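Q: What would this chain look like folded?
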Amino acid sequence: MPTAADLLAIMPFPDIDPIAFSIGPLAIHWYGLAYVAGILLGWAYARRIAANDSLWSGNVSTISKTQLDDFIVWAALGVVLGGRLGYIFFYDLPAVLRSPVRALEIWNGGMSFHGGLTGTTIAMILFARRNAIPVWSLFDIVAAVVPFGLFFGRIANFINGELWGRLTDVPWAVVFPTGGPFARHPSQLYEAGLEGIVLLLVLAAFVYGMRALKSPGFITGVFVCGYALSRIFVEFFREPDAQLGYLVGTNWLTMGMVLSFPMILLGLWAMLRARRQAALQL
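A: My prediction, written as structure tokens:
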């Protein structure tokens, strides 16, 4: 009788068209729908958190549902513009300089999480100042819901057959249409599980179980550290971008690792700062 590993070993790559549907000449890609799904689900979850006064310092929420409704546009712009510009500058600048129109082809290379994080951070700071919202509290509520977007984004990467993993002989290896006739780690699914599901549950435990929103900045620190550790771990299974390759040796340092290492220090600093500030208020 075949085992679960045997069944996984013979599973073909799912033949899913990267284009979800078309309306005349307009093609709607799964990649774009993933961003929409992540933003909408994150927005709905953020409204739920904002409405629960008991989670916040002084048992009063620092942000209203109406303000979150307004912020969703800012967040979308920060994610998309920052994510795309980040990918161009970190991973694809020479190719874009040769052919500037490539900058608009988000399906050609995609988005950078680190760029999206930077773009969203700028959007949060500007929005918080404009609406008199404590910036660390806005950071926290956004950090708590970002894993929705990470999960759907990585699933879209898998559907597109991009950002696949290194060569392997594990039973669940996948032969990607764009990765040659080789079995590879489905690293997109590893990231969807760690950066999406696991990180979402960890953050929810801190939000609801430990009432960490009462220490502004702590949830942000947990998210930043959690993402960085997850990304560094998966980078050992993910094939580096072809135009960059390994930065050190033949199977060691990648750009994803380089961009993630400082995030660990930043996350630890945010958590320590939050605890220190909370202690001063006692």
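The beta strands are 19-23, 26-29, 174-175, 183-184.
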